[in-house]
């Protein structure tokens, strides 16, 4: 009897389970799962909203001697080629003493030494080699006047550092970071450099450059006081404009203004230029041709994965714009964001800084696309005259493959992030209106909404014969997620326009995933190198180019965009 009852109970349970599964299947059939709605973006090609200033055509790096090395020259050629306008390049260490041997966060030119009698000896050989490399490619230097030559430093010993990733960052601040023994000798050095540049390249060329004094004087890069920096600036300004009155000189290249001490330093410098006593002339104020400061994000590890923080970078920009606007005399002055990056240390690889693991793959690409697009928004909002924003990223010669430095190429092979700049270089004409009801706003990003949901939006430009739309699918967390559907409506497009759809994702424009597919080799064969170089170029989606139909000058394009992917849709007619 007990056995029969047990069998009955089991049979009833099986029957109930079958009934429940049938009900669930019926419900699923009657009420199917609704896929997430496509992100609806509308671009009005005939509605310009502002100029498409090439803010992105600016790059910089610590190690100037990489400039003329094999992979450095190759990358500079590619940077020059991707831009329709001259690219500006900002290197450190152009006056640092040494024999030109490169190192991480180090470089030297030996431009200034002194003989046994303490008389100046100028040698522009290495500086010329660096600048010749730029000029040959139609590029323009942001000629950073620094750092302090050993013979001129008030505290020259120790001078040369040998920093490596994992060492204390403060170890780099050696004798080159100190004020000069003699400010007049410093001024004469600057005068001789500018005068030599004019003689070598011509005044018409040199007046298109940007000259600037030092880097991040509010931290260890400058071991003097703010007053001593202002004094150095006055002597620099007098010397630059004595050699070439039309030359453009700016500063102070402080760190991110969201930090109170950096904000105070920037304000103090602007106040000195506006109404302080000039250390050279004794009169009030000092000429200032443009203003510079930096903006950085703040990635970290959360539960074993990278979490970015674009909000802090945009906060730096916002505070910098507010400070400039608070000086009516300078509110229309050009601004260059001298370093504009996801974080601070380009030479800190993944091995020592795992929070930098975003750098090799597409997360760096989507972050860069979204960050530069928001810079245009901020410039519009604060009516800031922004000339450019320097991506502090170049290449590190003779380092391991994909070591996770913040660079654009590794061992001569382009990384995915470089293709974002290639995309931006293809965008012509003024910016045009983009409508996106689900787009994250600037306050959303400030409040870390990019951690709660994906940031999927667009930047667009158009001219009489083309339209370009940059679309990104960015998220602060480096986690896998399904692709998102995008429905892009373009208004003002004539019939039968040609469409080129460029893409950066795991399968396109991505040398990193190609390298991983090879087994992540550190000894790369010639055949593998050729394949990696091809994978590093900007790629079209399968089926592109194509012809799109338009009705009443409107067309709708639908596509899937993977997480951390970037698309550029370029229509020509």
UniProtKB/TrEMBL annotation:
Q: Which UniProt keywords apply?
A: Glycosidase, Hydrolase, Signal
Question: Residue ranges of the Glycosyl hydrolases family 39 N-terminal catalytic domain?
Answer: 40-535
The protein's matches in InterPro entries, at most eight in alphabetical order, are given as: GH, GH39_cat, Glyco_hydro_39, Glycosyl_Hydrolase_39
Membrane spanning stretches: none
Where does the secretion signal sit in this chain?
Answer: 1-32
Question: What domain of life?
Answer: Bacteria
Record-stated family: Belongs to the glycosyl hydrolase 39 family.
> What name goes with this protein?
Beta-xylosidase
């Amino acid at each position: 009897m007990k056995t029969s009852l047990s069998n009955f109970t089991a049979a009833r349970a099986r029957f109930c389970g079958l009934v429940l599964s049938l009900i669930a299947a019926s419900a699923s059939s009657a009420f199917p799962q609704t896929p997430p709605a496509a992100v609806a973006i509308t671009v009005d090609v005939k509605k310009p909203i502002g100029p498409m200033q090439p803010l992105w055509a600016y790059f910089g790096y610590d190690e100037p001697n990489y400039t003329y090395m094999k992979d450095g020259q190759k990358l500079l050629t590619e940077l020059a080629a991707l831009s329709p306008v001259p690219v500006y390049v900002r290197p450190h260490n152009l006056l640092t003493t040494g024999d030109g041997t490169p190192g991480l966060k180090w470089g030297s030119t030996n431009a200034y030494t002194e003989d046994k009698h303490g008389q100046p000896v100028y040698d522009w050989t290495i500086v010329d080699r660096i600048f010749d490399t730029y000029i040959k490619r139609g590029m323009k230097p942001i000629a950073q006047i620094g750092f302090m030559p050993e013979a001129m430093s008030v505290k020259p010993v120790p001078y040369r550092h040998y920093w490596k990733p994992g060492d204390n960052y403060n170890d780099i601040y050696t004798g080159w970071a100190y004020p000069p023994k003699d400010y007049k000798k410093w001024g004469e050095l600057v005068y001789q450099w500018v005068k030599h540049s004019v003689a070598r390249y011509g005044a018409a060329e040199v007046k298109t450059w940007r000259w600037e004094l030092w880097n991040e004087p509010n931290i260890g890069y400058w071991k003097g006081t703010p007053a001593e920096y202002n004094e150095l600036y006055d002597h620099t300004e007098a010397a630059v404009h004595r050699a070439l009155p039309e030359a453009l000189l700016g500063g102070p290249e402080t760190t991110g203004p969201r930090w109170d001490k950096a904000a105070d330093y920037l304000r103090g410098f602007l106040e000195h230029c506006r109404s302080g006593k000039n250390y050279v002339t004794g009169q009030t104020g000092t000429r200032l041709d443009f203003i510079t400061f930096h903006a950085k994000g703040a990635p970290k590890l959360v539960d074993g994965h990278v979490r970015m923080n674009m909000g802090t970078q945009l906060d730096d920009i916002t505070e910098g714009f507010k400070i400039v606007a608070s000086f009516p005399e300078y509110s229309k002055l050009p601004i260059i964001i001298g370093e504009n990056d996801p974080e601070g240390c380009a030479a800190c690889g993944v091995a020592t800084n795992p929070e930098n693991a975003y750098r090799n793959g597409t997360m760096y690409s989507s972050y860069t696309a979204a960050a530069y697009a928001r810079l245009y928004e901020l410039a519009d909002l604060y009516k800031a005259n922004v000339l450019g924003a320097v991506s502090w990223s170049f290449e590190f010669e003779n380092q391991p493959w994909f070591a996770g430095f913040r660079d654009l190429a590794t061992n001569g092979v382009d990384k995915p992030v470089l293709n974002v700049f290639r995309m931006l270089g293809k965008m012509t004409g003024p910016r045009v209106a983009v409508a996106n009801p689900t787009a994250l706003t600037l306050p959303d990003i400030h409040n870390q909404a990019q951690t709660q949901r994906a940031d999927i939006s667009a930047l667009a430009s158009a001219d009489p014969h083309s339209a370009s739309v940059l679309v990104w699918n960015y998220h602060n967390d480096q986690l896998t997620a399904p692709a998102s559907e995008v429905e892009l409506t373009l208004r003002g497009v004539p019939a039968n326009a040609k469409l080129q759809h460029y893409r950066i994702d795991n399968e396109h424009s991505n040398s990193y995933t190609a390298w991983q597919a090879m087994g992540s080799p550190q000894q790369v064969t010639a055949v593998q190198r050729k394949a990696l170089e091809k994978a590093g170029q900007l790629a079209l989606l399968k089926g592109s180019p194509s012809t799109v139909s338009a009705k009443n000058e409107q067309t709708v394009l639908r596509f899937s965009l993977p997480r951390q992917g970037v698309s550029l849709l370029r229509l020509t007619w």
